[in-house]
From TrEMBL:
It catalyses: alpha,alpha-trehalose + H2O = alpha-D-glucose + beta-D-glucose. Belongs to the glycosyl hydrolase 37 family. Its EC number is 3.2.1.28. Keywords: Glycosidase, Hydrolase, Signal. One of its GO terms (biological process) is trehalose catabolic process. It comes from Daucus carota subsp. sativus (Carrot). This is Trehalase. Pfam families: Trehalase. GO terms for molecular function: alpha,alpha-trehalase activity. The keyword Signal applies.
């Protein structure tokens, strides 16, 4: 322990970022995960399974029994002994989040997708709608009575999980789940999800990546305000808005202070403030600890490893885990440098957050807050135009911070520090009002999108680089399709709507064809082949799937489906 403390001390000049300590339970579960890998081997091994298990007895009793397990000469536990320990001392992953029937689910909601006339499409949409019943969960009483035995965090209202190994609520996934729930007319369930996320801000100061003890050290793309605005616009529930507003302001502060805030000075000497992802953690991610240790195994130096762990966790905070977008060398994950990048999408989300808070404050008759956040949004819009916009490409580009250009924490802007690689995220600002209401800009960005190489037969590719990482080519993800399509639609331009409709149809067709082939909705799709699901990354492709279901329903709500149009590939 002393050696580790000395090594940590030695990293201080390079790693000064904050760390939120994890719990003794999570530390034990990681130990169990590592033992399980040694015992059962890599084949079919999912490290997350072990940190999602809960204890049947208190931690010290469990730990003692675990320490007493007979070990071989090389320190590993034989499978029968570990099997015995797991069945005697541990509850299965997922046992603490129990099924609950959503209070507002009806098989055929009144006014459901009024413009879907084709009977086959309608029948499928009703099946997708019925999947809310599969994904609905309530934290069990055991978690409420004995939180110390569970990595699952207690939440008061029911949740929608993404599905499969993702057996807890996730932050940004919830936005598209809510969009689907709104199409399904399940307003109470949608509000309950928001109430849970607001409670996370009250308890932790930010919305967590997901509702697990091992996710407390980072957030995810901040879309809480977008959830609240969309729910308010459908329900006019002002009380709901008033209860959520203080937490939104806390969240805005989280993303605009300390490690998340970056100061960039432009060529005229004006300083702009933008935000970045930065996890409060510099050790292996507990849910993927064995994988992270293996990745870091290529590095020899303790400080380099510590740095990599923060970059891995920060990439997870971005929702894009992992992608060439965050890597200096697209074939080497140890070159991740997430915290040195000012991301386009994060700043678009915060710009939207500022506009949303302003709007919500206005409807709550809090004019001074409304004015304050309207001003903040203008400043961010200017900052995005100056730092991230690239006129020649007609796209916003991630900005890579050059450590050598800093003077007292302010970085000097250089055109060459914009990353000219094409990612779907370069088009996300279109989703926000100040950009999608500018006709010339929309025209320019739409043309850029059409020539970008991202538009494929079955949707928008995440990037142009085929790296084997899941947030890269040829994977397409529902949230990215949705934000770009909705941005084009919101512009009000006829041409942009037609491009949006084309992308949405392709996405619906591929989701449908894959559903018919496999009987399930998928987490991600391969946009090169209609009807194929995606792959790559550190875990096997997952099904269920919250945000994919939500986006299909949202697209069908927006565009409908004519009676005589065939669906599928
Ligand atoms: O277990 C590895 C990682 O898994 C999550 O990331 C992926 O699934 C999430 C849920 O659908 C999604 O929000 C995220 O965009 C995906 O990349 C998790 O969020 C990561 O923190 C975790 O390390």
């Amino acid at each position: 322990e002393e050696v580790v403390a000395q090594e940590k001390q030695a990293c201080l000049p390079t790693d000064t970022g904050p760390v939120i300590p994890t719990t003794p339970l999570v530390i034990f579960l990681e130990k169990l995960q590592e033992t399980a890998l040694n015992t059962y081997g890599h084949k079919g091994f999912d490290p997350k399974l072990y940190v999602d298990m809960s204890l049947r007895f208190n931690l010290s009793e469990t730990h003692e029994a675990f320490n007493k397990l007979p070990r071989t000469d090389n320190g590993s536990v034989l499978a029968p002994h570990l099997n015995g320990f797991l069945s005697e001392y541990m509850n299965a992953a997922g046992d603490d989040l129990v099924y609950v029937e959503p209070v507002d689910f009806v098989a055929q909601p009144a006014g459901f997708l009024p413009n879907v006339d084709n009977l086959e499409v309608r029948a499928w949409a009703l099946e997708v709608h019925s999947l809310w019943k599969n994904l609905s969960r309530q934290v069990s009483d055991q978690v409420l009575d004995h939180p110390d035995l569970h990595s699952l965090l207690p939440l008061a209202s029911p949740v929608m999980i993404p599905g499969s190994r993702f057996r807890e609520v996730y932050y940004w996934d919830s936005y598209w789940v809510i969009r689907g729930l709104l199409a399904s007319k399940m307003y109470e369930t949608a509000k309950g999800i928001v109430t849970n996320l607001v409670s996370l801000i009250e308890n932790f100061g930010h919305v967590l990546n997901g509702a697990r003890a091992y996710y407390t050290n980072r957030s995810q793309p901040p879309l809480l305000s977008a959830m609240i605005v969309d729910i308010y616009n459908r329900t006019s529930d002002l009380d709901f808005v008033r209860k959520s507003l203080p937490s939104l302001i806390t969240e805005h502060n989280f993303w605009n202070s300390g490690i998340h805030r970056m100061n960039i000075q432009d060529s005229q000497g004006k300083t702009h403030y933008l935000s970045r992802y930065y996890a409060m953690w510099n050790e292996p991610r507990p849910e993927s600890s064995t994988i992270d240790k293996e990745t870091a195994g290529k590095l020899s130096n303790f400080c380099e490893k510590q740095h990599l762990y923060r970059e891995l966790a920060s990439a997870a905070e971005s929702g894009w885990d992992f992608s060439s977008r965050w890597m200096r060398n697209a074939s080497d994950l140890t070159t991740l440098c997430t915290t040195s990048i000012i991301p386009v999408d994060l700043n678009a989300f915060i710009l939207k957050m500022e506009l949303d808070i302003s709007y919500l404050a206005h409807v709550s008759q809090d004019e001074s807050t409304a004015e304050h956040f309207a001003e903040a949004s203008k400043a961010r819009q200017t900052a995005m135009n100056t730092v991230l916009w690239n006129e020649e490409m007609g796209q916003w580009l991630d900005y890579w911070i050059d450590a050598n250009s800093s003077s007292q924490g302010t970085y000097k802007w250089k055109a060459s520090d914009q990353n000219q690689s094409v990612f779907a995220s370069n088009f996300i600002p279109l989703w926000t009002q100040p950009f999608n209401s500018d006709d010339d800009l929309v025209d320019k960005v739409s043309k850029s999108l059409q020539h970008s190489g991202l538009l494929r037969d079955a949707g928008i590719a995440t990037s142009l680089a085929n790296t084997g990482q899941q947030w890269d080519f040829p994977n397409g993800w529902a949230p990215l399709q949705h934000m770009i399509v909705e941005g084009l639609v919101k512009s009000g331009s006829k041409e942009a709507r037609s491009l949006a409709e084309d992308i949405a149809m392709k996405w619906i067709n591929t989701n449908y064809a894959a559903y018919k082939k496999t009987g399930t909705m998928h987490e991600k799709y391969d946009v090169e082949k209609c009807g194929a699901f995606g792959g790559g990354g550190e875990y096997v492709p997952q099904t269920g799937f919250g945000w994919s279901n939500g986006v299909v329903l949202a697209f069908l709500e927006e565009f409908g489906w004519p009676e005589d149009l065939k669906i599928g590939c």
